Prior knowledge:
Blueprint lengths: L1 H33 L30 H12 L5 H8 L3 H13 L3 E4 L2 E4 L2
Antiparallel strand pairs: 1-2
Helix pairs in contact: 1-4, 2-4, 3-4
Amino acid sequence: MAGFVDSTVKDIDARLAELRAEVAKLEAARSALTGGGGARSTASAPPRRRGRGPGRPRGRRGGNTRAVQALELVSNQPGITIPQIAEAMSIEPNYLYRVLPRLVNEGKVRREGQGWHPAA
């Protein structure tokens, strides 16, 4: 009986981790579509974890390489859209729905309609 309970708790924990990742993706997409900001309820938000501990997370290149590339494209082609940026970078557009709102928060770009422009 204890084995069943332990495995069920592990299954539930794994599913919750998947759902948290999905929520983060959806919030990033919503933020990108609404131009950032927006009300986000933190009452039910799970505590954030720091990843693998000291050092770089596994599989990351570091240095915000994609953000730098996206910023360069926006600077060279004001009004460029996320699908156009993704095509130029040969990546899927969904990644940019996390990158560009972060650049907005850093004051490096701004959004006008569907297009992205360098910050003034």
